[in-house]
Design brief:
With 351 residues, the chain is mainly alpha-helical. The chain has a two-stranded antiparallel ribbon. Helix 9 packs parallel to helix 11, helix 13 runs parallel beside helix 15 and helix 17 packs antiparallel against helix 18. The chain starts with 7 loop residues before the first helix and ends with a helix.
């Protein structure tokens, strides 16, 4: 279904998702593995070769090695122990050049330390660099926080967040680091990067949409990340915020995926059962169109309005297509007592 219409033919295809969002964001491989060309999430290792010892033009050079980085960190640590300010007089010219290095891919020395999971070096560089350096984005617009989250380096994420790394910066696909955590189910990283923030400061982050119009809650729902959905709800995420392509809420997405656990969770937390998409389709339209009697029953129990019409002038009943289990959820219009429609006997028995 697109935002232009919500016809019966569109909805009867059970595996269809209206804007193709699910298939674009469905995780098919581990974060560490190279992703297919055209994927909306660029992994931090994409620019490295598939061999075990991944090298780029700068990291593999004689001037940037683990040994030289370790030596630099040790010299800075000694200076700190002596309570001296690290400045140009305390670092050699080679060390200064190393700290200031930006590779052809736009990576700082901190990006590289994270990519190669050199925890000792990474932690010392975080302490050494000012906040402005922590927020430098590479050619893929990834910050060190994006990379640490992608690789699920919880301690690094925690250190970056404590130092004040920005949660609002977006990569080339519009994803913040919190988007990345929600995409891959990294609850600990999400907790680490948001733990220091008040609800007032975190609210704008939770409303950021990537270039496909998806917030963190949308991504968590699309990937059936129930723990992250609960986490985001506790942090104050707007349950009824619409994604930008067709106006779906998290409840619409959960219904599309036949994810009854997410549907129950969202309804219990107060999600709007009658929220319309841009084309007027409610979650009940989607459930009936996909012949999902169980979810349609849940929505009706939550008070869904069965008479709402979409832009095609269809009610949810119009999409039932003769399905007895679905029809049992709706009152018969031609049988009324004292002006009230009589509910199906079959539905009452099953309830």
């Amino acid at each position: 279904m697109s935002s232009e219409g919500c016809s019966k033919d569109d909805l009867l295809e059970d595996n269809r998702t209206d804007s193709g969002i699910y298939f674009c964001y469905r995780p098919t491989q581990k974060p560490e593995e190279p992703r297919e060309h055209g994927s909306d999430f660029s992994g931090p290792r994409e620019k490295f070769s598939a061999v075990e010892d991944r090298l780029d033009s700068a990291y593999g050079s004689s001037s940037i090695t683990t040994e030289s980085l370790t030596g630099l960190v040790e010299s800075c640590t000694l200076s700190s122990d002596q309570e001296q300010q690290t400045d140009s007089s305390e670092l050699s010219e080679q060390d200064e050049n190393l700290l200031a290095t930006i590779t052809e891919e736009g990576d700082t020395i901190l990006h590289l330390a994270i990519i190669h999971e050199e925890d000792f070096i990474t932690q010392h560089l975080i302490q050494l660099f000012p906040k402005e350096v922590l927020d430098i984005q590479n050619n893929l617009y990834q910050t060190p926080l994006h990379l640490a989250t992608y690789l699920n380096l919880t301690d690094v994420v925690k250190s970056l967040a404590k130092k004040g790394a920005s949660l609002e910066l977006q990569d080339q696909h519009g994803n913040t680091a919190l988007h990345v955590a929600c995409q891959h189910g990294q609850v600990e990283c999400a907790t680490a990067m948001t733990g220091e923030l008040s609800l007032t400061k975190l609210g704008p982050v939770l409303e950021i949409q990537n270039w496909r119009g998806l917030t963190c809650l949308h991504l968590a729902a699309l990937n059936r990340q129930h723990h992250l959905m609960q986490f985001l709800m506790k942090k104050g995420a707007d349950l009824n915020i619409q994604e930008g392509t067709s106006g779906k809420t998290a409840l619409h997405l959960a219904v599309e995926l036949h994810d009854i656990a997410s549907v129950k969770m969202l309804l219990n937390q107060g999600a709007s059962v009658d929220a319309p998409m841009f084309n007027g389709c409610t979650p009940l339209h989607l459930a009936v169109g996909r012949q999902d009697a169980a979810i349609a029953h849940l929505l009706c129990q939550a008070g869904a309005d069965t008479m709402l019409r979409n832009m095609e002038d269809e009610t949810a009943l119009d999409l039932a297509d003769g399905n007895d289990d679905i029809l049992a959820l709706f009152p018969f219009d031609d049988i009324q007592i004292s002006g009230r429609s009589v509910v199906s006997v079959k539905f009452l028995a099953e309830s």
